[in-house]
Design a protein that fits this description.
Structural class: mainly alpha
Largest sheet: none
Number of strands: 0
Radius of gyration: 21 Å
Number of helices: 15
Distance between the termini: 7 Å
Strand content: under 5%
Number of domains: 1
CATH class: Mainly Alpha
């Protein structure tokens, strides 16, 4: 299938441009919030590992729990309205971090984090379900790559700016920027016509309320599809295995950057953590930008199957090797290479996955997959916090990389060349 280039999609698709702009703005604010929220928890708790672990759990587990419900919701109701109202709600919640001033009210930060990411599950479900309709089949690969690359690029830029803003102006500034970013995102989504977010058949079915199945049945049907369709189950299990290892990265960055390298090399803790997230973001974004050209090559050579498996294995082994790096910058080099590879792989894999899903069920399946991944990611982050009392962050890095690499092994076991792996990218 002919695939639009990045420039062709952006120049020729106004609705996608608006969605991309909204994500760009809100993700920038999100990373300001992440660095500031983590720094606030670290400062008030006295750098307790379990306090950081609880913060990571509050970011990820609510998203995971809400995702299946959110997916069913956005398949039944207006995806555009869901995105607008959840952005407005998140703007209000973001300001509640300003109330956290001592250990006695640290719970506000955790509750606000839970609410932000619960609403985020509904926003992401609506965005991911609408994106293929906005891009069309020819623009899907470029659209997926652009949406995720800008998210990861903002991980880099937002982390860097968030760390700098927290160090220079205090955490309050970052929280205010986060709130403003959600309002700006809501405006850009408002510019997208309602009818552009669904195909005609699904829109007609949604308009006919008598044709709708009960909410619980649609939720159950989505879960059944995810666990009975071969390729959907492969992606689900693959992402869960990856997250079991990858979830530790939150605690690895916090302890290596915020504590270890801060002590051994004199880094400011917030800046050191921000550096690691910045490198991660640039690596993932770079991989996403390379995905279009890589996909053309893989299609021509017929090597999509081999690429997905080996990319997962190699990226995990590179991250494991980073455990032996003695300085922050050497660690960052292997971290960048690992994330560059997984960025390309994820764009190829996600495009295959999205193309395999019918529009009427896409919101449910994509959020069930994402929710399961983030549930394991959040639990892994929390467990990693407890493991910090018994092992070094370098040892945790080694285990994290090896476990993440096993996702590639699972791919080779479940899928075969020429088998049912969704439409060819």
């Amino acid at each position: 299938m002919q695939s639009l280039s990045y420039s062709q999609l952006i120049r020729g698709n106004r609705n996608f441009r608006n969605l991309l702009a909204g994500q760009f703005i809100s993700e920038l604010g999100n990373w300001f919030n992440f660095i500031a929220g983590l720094g606030l928890v670290r400062f008030i708790s006295g750098a307790e590992p379990m306090a950081a672990g609880l913060f990571f759990l509050a970011r990820l587990l609510p998203f995971a729990i809400a995702s299946p419900i959110a997916g069913t919701f956005v398949d039944r109701f207006s995806r555009r309205q869901v995105m607008i109202w959840t952005d407005i709600a998140r703007a209000a919640v973001a300001l509640s971090f300003l109330l956290v001033t001592s250990k006695e009210n640290l719970w506000i930060a955790y509750v606000a984090t839970v609410l932000l990411h619960t609403f985020g599950a509904f926003f992401d479900g609506a965005k991911n379900a609408a994106a293929p309709n906005l891009t069309g089949k020819e623009g899907l690969l470029s659209g997926v790559a652009l949406l995720f690359s800008t998210r990861f690029l903002l991980m880099a830029i937002g982390s860097a700016l968030g760390g700098w803003a927290a160090a220079a102006f205090g955490y309050e500034t970052a929280f205010i920027i986060n709130a403003i970013s959600f309002l700006a995102s809501a405006y850009t989504v408002w510019l997208i016509p309602e009818e552009a977010t669904r195909d005609e058949a699904t829109a007609g079915r949604m308009a006919d309320k008598t044709a709708r199945e009960p909410f619980v049945k649609e939720l159950r049907d989505g879960i059944k599809y995810a666990f009975t369709e071969h390729f959907a189950l492969t992606i689900l299990v693959l992402n869960v295995i990856w997250a079991a290892g990858g979830g530790a990265v939150n605690m690895i960055f916090e302890r290596l950057g915020g504590v270890h390298f801060a002590e051994t090399e004199g880094w400011n803790p917030d800046v050191a953590v921000a550096v690691l997230w910045t490198v991660t973001g640039f690596g993932l974004a770079g991989g996403m930008f390379l995905a279009h050209r890589t996909s053309i090559y893989l299609d021509r050579k017929g090597r999509n199957y081999q690429f997905v498996g080996w990319a997962l294995i190699i990226h995990g082994l590179l991250f494991a090797a980073a455990a032996y790096m003695p300085t922050l910058w050497l660690f960052a080099v292997l971290l960048f290479l690992s994330r560059l590879i997984i960025g390309v792989e994820y764009a190829v894999q996600e495009t295959m996955f999205q193309r395999s899903l019918p529009d009427m069920i896409r919101g449910r399946i994509s959020t069930i997959d994402r929710g399961a991944e983030l549930a394991v990611f959040g639990i892994s982050s929390y467990v990693a916090g407890g493991l910090m009392y018994y092992m070094t962050p370098q040892t945790l890095t080694l285990f994290s990389g090896i476990l993440s690499a096993f996702a590639g092994v699972l791919w080779f076991i479940r899928e075969r060349p020429g088998g049912q792996t969704g439409e060819s990218v």
